Each structure stands twice: as C-alpha cells, then as structure tokens.
C-alpha cells in the first residue's frame, strides 16, 4: 500500500495494495524481468549495498514485481512484512534456517503436508533441530511436548487432509507462555477466510502455488509477520541463500490476489454442497469437512474462520484398491496432488502427498489407504456429483 493512501478494506487491498506506477502510468502492475538494476553513481551503488539507501539491487532479493506481491499479501494478512520465496517449502525452510539453531526444538501438528514432515524429520535433524509431532487438537499433548529449547509451534489449520481445526488463539497463548513462536500454515484458508495474526499467531506460511494463484499456473511461497523476524531475519536468509520467487510468478500471484475473496467464497460453497452430498452416499463411510455440523471442530471453525474452505476428504471401504478405483474412474476431476485450483482435483494421500513418510507416521496422522482428498474447484456442483457418482459405482 502506498504511503499516501488511508487504510482500506480487504477487497481494495487485494487489487491495489503495493502498486507503484512507473512513468508509463500503466493500469496493470508491470512485470520487471531484469536480473539486476543500474545505479546513478558509484556512491549510490555503495549506499544501496550497505543498506543506507533503499532501492533495487539484484532480483535475488530486490525486484519491484516481487515487492508488490509481498506488500499486497502482507496487507491482506495484517502483517508488517512479507518475504516471497520460490515455493511453499522454501518458505518453511527459510523460516527455520533464519530463526533456529542447533539444539532447538519444534512442536508440530500431525497431518501437515507430507513434505513438511519430511523436512522436519529428515533434513533439520542434520543441523541439530528436532521435532515432536502431536495431534493438532490435543492441547495437553502440545504442552507436554514443549521443551526448554522449543522455539516454534508449527501447525496447519485446517489440517491436510483430514481438515482438523486447531484453536489458534489457545496455541498462541501456549507458545508465548514458553517464549516460543506460533507459526501457522494458512494455505487452506488464505487471508480471505482466516487471519492467524489477528488470533495471536506470530508468523504465517503460504504456498502461493495453491489458492493465492488459484489456477495452477506457478509455484511460489511466502512468510508473513513482523518487521524484525520477517523483514530482517528471514529476508537476510533469502538475500544470502537465494530461495527466490521469480518476477513472472510474482506477477501471476498478484493477479490471483485480485479475485481471492470471490474465489474462496465459491470454493467454500461448492465444497459444502459436495461434502453434504458425499455424507449421504451409501459407498462413503466418512467425510471430513469443517462445514459439516458433525465435524468435531465445526463450532471452532465457525468462530475462527469466515468460511470453511475448498478441501474435502472422504473414506471408502476396501483400502487402496477401492480408493484407486474411484480415482481411476473419474472423468471430469483432475488426478493431481496439487490443490487450490479452479479445476477440482482428486488424490490418494497415502500414496502421493503423504507417500514418503513412514507407515507409522501415516497411521498416527489418520492417513488411511481408503482416504481420498478433493480440492473442490469452481465447476457446476451437479457435474462434480455426477462424476463422483459414476466413479463410486465402479469401486
């Protein structure tokens, strides 16, 4: 948001925050495909490299298009600063590398993205950082897992793929009581449906690849939070290590943010209708969606979120064979592990997104062989129901 504008609403920020027009007076945000930037003099170059003068230097860490995306997302999340990264996993890794050191400890909710689990269990231990996993809704378990060197409490809410909803305010109070930070992956809800910083969280992680883009075009990530940890520490990590978002991808995400609230409302409406339909289907043994009154955290989701999101998971009898039969017989749905697309996608988490974690970890997270995940898109719900109907009949 430019300095001469008064504070504005979410939808206004979604289309205007961070925009700075050039001398060409363009209406749409420009795309700066330049690896480096020139200086007026040697003295100016020295001042920028020293940090004494703001301005562009090199697109690894200063690019006007990327900066527009960062400022717009920070405005939507209510944060002071944002650092854009090459992917959602790059965002998590940059955050950990910037804020943790050998001997530190993380408490993480089960049911996070499978690659997040792999990062915490296979990569970070090489650098002396350990992680304990707990149920996202077992608050006594969270507290019991905290150690003197616990620095981060990390969670996704709703969880992936069981859509468990954790109480952000309660976990923020727990974290702060132990001098730790609460980090929330807000990928499933986006700031259009949930603002974790307003609920006490310290940092927000995004895979911009998902709903922020909204059409499955580009890969990117972001960390949002305060000016010190994000604007200095994590930015310093990005400047040195270079997990950088490309300007083109940033430009795509900027355009995606313009329609974010509209799309998230539509995703939520379609997911609600599909979840209610699946709940009554004779071949479905269980449905996970926070919008269903029978969901264990339905009331919490109503308080914490302004919508229930586009992710639905459901269980079928017959294990992997039955689940794969449903996937293979869909005709309209896209078989892909990505989510947040305008096109509805279906995946079998146990063999894809969570296939690289151990069977024990899958069992602890409730990732069964009969579980399927839908990222409900923007098609006509009747067409989605018809496709699933014929696929379930072939199970």
How would you describe the overall organization of this protein?
The chain is of the alpha/beta class and 395 residues long. The protein has 2 domains: 249 residues, 3-Layer(aba) Sandwich (Aspartate Aminotransferase, domain 2), CATH 3.40.640; 133 residues, Aspartate Aminotransferase, domain 1, CATH 3.90.1150.10. It is built from 15 helices and 12 strands. The strands form 2 sheets. A 7-stranded mixed β-sheet has the order 1-7-6-5-4-2-3, sandwiched between helices. A 5-stranded mixed β-sheet has the order 8-9-12-11-10. The longest helix has 20 residues. It is globular. The N and C termini lie far apart (52 Å). The model has no long low-confidence stretch (mean pLDDT 95).
Short recap of the structure:
With 395 residues, this protein is of the alpha/beta class. The chain contains 15 helices and twelve strands.
Topology diagram in text:
Elements: H1 10-16, H2 42-50, H3 64-77, E1 81-85, H4 88-99, E2 105-109, H5 114-123, E3 130-134, H6 139-145, E4 150-156, H7 168-177, E5 181-185, H8 190-193, E6 203-207, E7 221-225, H9 229-241, H10 247-258, H11 260-279, E8 284-288, H12 298-304, E9 311-316, H13 319-329, E10 334-335, E11 345-347, H14 359-365, E12 371-375, H15 381-393
Parallel strand pairs: 2-3, 2-4, 4-5, 5-6, 10-11
Antiparallel strand pairs: 1-7, 6-7, 8-9, 9-12, 11-12
Helix pairs in contact: 1-3, 1-10, 3-10, 4-9, 13-15
């Amino acid at each position: 948001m430019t300095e001469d504008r008064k504070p504005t609403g979410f939808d206004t920020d979604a289309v205007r925050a961070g925009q700075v027009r050039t001398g060409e007076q363009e209406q749409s945000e420009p795309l700066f495909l330049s690896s480096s930037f020139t200086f007026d003099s040697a003295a100016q170059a020295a001042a920028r490299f020293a940090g004494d003068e703001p301005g562009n230097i090199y697109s690894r860490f200063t690019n006007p298009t990327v900066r527009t995306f960062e400022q717009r997302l920070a405005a939507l999340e209510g944060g002071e600063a944002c650092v854009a990264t090459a992917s959602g996993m790059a965002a998590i890794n940059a955050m950990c590398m910037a804020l943790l050191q050998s001997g530190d400890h993380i408490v993480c909710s089960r049911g996070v993205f499978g690659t997040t689990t792999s990062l915490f269990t296979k990569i970070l231990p090489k650098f002396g950082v350990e992680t304990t996993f707990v149920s996202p809704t077992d608050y006594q378990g969270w507290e019991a897992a905290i150690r003197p060197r616990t620095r981060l409490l990390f969670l996704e809410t709703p969880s992936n793929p069981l859509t468990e909803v954790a109480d952000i305010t309660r976990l923020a109070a727990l974290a702060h009581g132990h001098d730790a930070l609460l980090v929330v992956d807000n990928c499933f809800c986006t700031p259009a449906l949930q603002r974790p910083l307003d609920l006490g969280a310290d940092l927000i992680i995004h895979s911009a690849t998902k709903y922020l883009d909204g059409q499955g075009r580009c890969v990117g990530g972001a960390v949002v939070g305060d000016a010190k940890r994000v604007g200095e520490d994590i930015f310093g990590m990005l400047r040195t290590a270079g997990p950088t978002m490309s300007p083109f991808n940033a430009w795509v995400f900027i355009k995606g943010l313009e329609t974010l609230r509209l799309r998230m409302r539509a995703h939520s409406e379609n997911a609600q209708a599909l979840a209610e339909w699946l709940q009554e289907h004779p071949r479905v043994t269980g449905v996970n969606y926070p919008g269903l009154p029978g969901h264990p955290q339905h009331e919490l989701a109503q308080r914490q979120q302004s919508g229930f999101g586009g992710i639905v998971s459901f269980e079928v009898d017959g294990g992997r064979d039955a689940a794969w039969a449903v996937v293979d017989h869909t005709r309209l749905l896209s078989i892909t592990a990505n989510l947040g697309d305008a096109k509805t996608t279906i995946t079998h988490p146990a063999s894809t997104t969570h296939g690289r974690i151990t069977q024990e970890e899958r069992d602890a997270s409730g990732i069964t062989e009969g579980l399927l995940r839908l990222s409900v898109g923007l098609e006509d719900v009747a067409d989605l129901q018809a496709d699933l109907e014929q696929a379930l009949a072939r199970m």
